[in-house]
Design brief:
Layout: E1 8-14, E2 22-24, E3 36-38, E4 58-66, E5 72-77, E6 83-87, E7 92-96, E8 102-107, E9 123-128, H1 132-135, E10 137-143, E11 147-156, E12 159-160, E13 164-171, E14 181-183, E15 189-192, E16 211-215, E17 232-235, E18 240-245, E19 251-255, E20 261-267, E21 292-295, E22 301-308, E23 313-319, E24 324-331, E25 334-341, E26 349-354, E27 360-364, E28 380-385
């Protein structure tokens, strides 16, 4: 499988005119749309000329690195800068060269996708061990016939070996399978799980559904976890598909809402984020409020990639429903501004990751059964921000 490098497509310019955060105007514990206000995202303009639009203008140059990929989902980098990409429905892992070109390095037998039925199961997130140079482990989150599980494979001679189960028993459903995995600054493996379409599981500490999990690289409960002998790190989640850490080591996660509010959450060990009792902000002291919310018809936040800045950090968030790329400014544990780019230009954006060279990579998701594919879909795209 090969793919020639495609040229830079255009320059996107956007401006920001204000701050976007969330506020609650009442204490309605269910977070009904009438009980809270999300300050609108700053409007953005797009041009191909690079004309300066204002003092905070950013230019996003994009290069298609690979195209013609069916339902890409996970994206993780090897130390040499090449990327591993998982394909949800075929159950394949591809190696993508930053200079162009892709090839199959593993088909994972036993992956059961329901994409043809409009579902969300299959081969999902990928993670590369922080000790890859010595242990050569690559991790994958996959859906089997009745459960979701995390497996790991050895990288040898340019290919991935047989999968070994790290953890199993994660609830699997037609929808809400979570699927993002990542190693934290502490060397532990974190995973997001959905409640598999059974909302009550999110509040059951004994269930692995509707949680963020923290475990050792071998799949055991990590030292310091909030609940004894458990991999559960936080609970009360509907469906989290984005995880990343800011410059101070704080964990942030993106979460899909139902009919009202999508969320950006600051993750604290042992906290309960409210689903299904709460969606969005609330005045209920039992639950932790999100740091920002979006209307569900304008976002659908999936992957998140955080870049450090001299002051604070910047989070890039791929939006599925909104078909846009969000840029969210973080200062400490606060969201201080956000705007969006590429609206409607690429379709659904699933994943965002930062390469070893500091470049932002994103993947589109137009062949996943939820959209009409565009020419060349789906694509892996490298973004240069100026």
């Amino acid at each position: 499988m090969t793919n020639a490098r495609l040229p830079v497509a255009l320059v996107v310019v956007a401006t920001m005119t204000g701050i976007a955060t969330s506020a609650c105007s009442s204490s309605d514990p269910r977070g009904h749309p009438s009980s809270q206000v999300a300050i609108p995202d700053s409007t953005s303009t797009s041009t191909t000329s690079g004309t300066r639009q204002g003092p905070t203008t950013l230019r996003l140059h994009r290069t298609v690195v690979a195209h013609g990929i069916r339902s890409p989902w996970g994206l993780a980098f090897l130390p040499n800068g090449k990327a591993l990409v998982s394909t949800r429905d075929p159950g394949n892992i591809l190696l993508v060269n930053p200079r162009g070109g892709k090839r199959l390095v593993r088909h994972i037998a036993g992956v059961v996708s329901n994409g043809a039925q409009g579902g969300e199961a299959g081969l999902l997130g990928l993670a590369v061990s922080p000790r890859f140079r010595t242990n050569h482990w690559v991790y994958a989150y996959m859906s089997a016939a009745s459960v979701n599980r995390i497996v790991r494979m050895r990288w040898r001679h340019g290919r991935l070996g047989h999968p070994h189960v790290v953890i199993s028993g994660i609830p699997r459903g037609l929808h809400h399978n979570g699927g993002r995995i990542a190693f934290g600054p502490d060397g532990m493996l974190y995973a997001t799980t959905g409640e598999s379409g059974v909302p009550s599981l999110a509040q059951q500490r004994s269930s692995l559904g509707g949680k963020i999990l923290r475990m050792t690289p071998a799949g055991r409960p990590a030292p310091g976890n909030p609940f004894r002998n458990s991999v559960v790190y936080t609970l009360g989640h509907r469906n989290v598909e984005g995880l990343d850490w800011d410059r101070k080591g704080r964990l942030w996660a993106t979460e899909f809402g139902e009919h009202a509010w999508d969320e950006l959450n600051l993750i604290r060990p042992g906290r309960n984020y409210g689903w299904p009792i709460v969606e969005g902000m609330s005045g209920d002291h039992r639950f932790t409020n999100p740091k920002a919310v979006w209307r569900t018809d304008s976002a659908g936040p999936s992957g998140i990639a955080i870049q450090p800045r001299r002051r604070g950090s910047v989070a890039w968030i791929g939006a599925l429903t909104g078909e846009r790329l969000y840029r969210v400014r973080l200062h400490g544990n606060t969201v201080v501004g956000r705007r969006f780019f590429l609206e409607g230009r690429l379709g659904r954006i699933r994943t965002a990751e930062i390469s070893p060279h500091g470049r932002l990579w994103i993947t589109t998701s137009n062949t996943d059964g939820r959209a009409t594919p565009r020419p060349g879909d789906d694509k892996i795209i490298r973004i240069t921000v100026r």
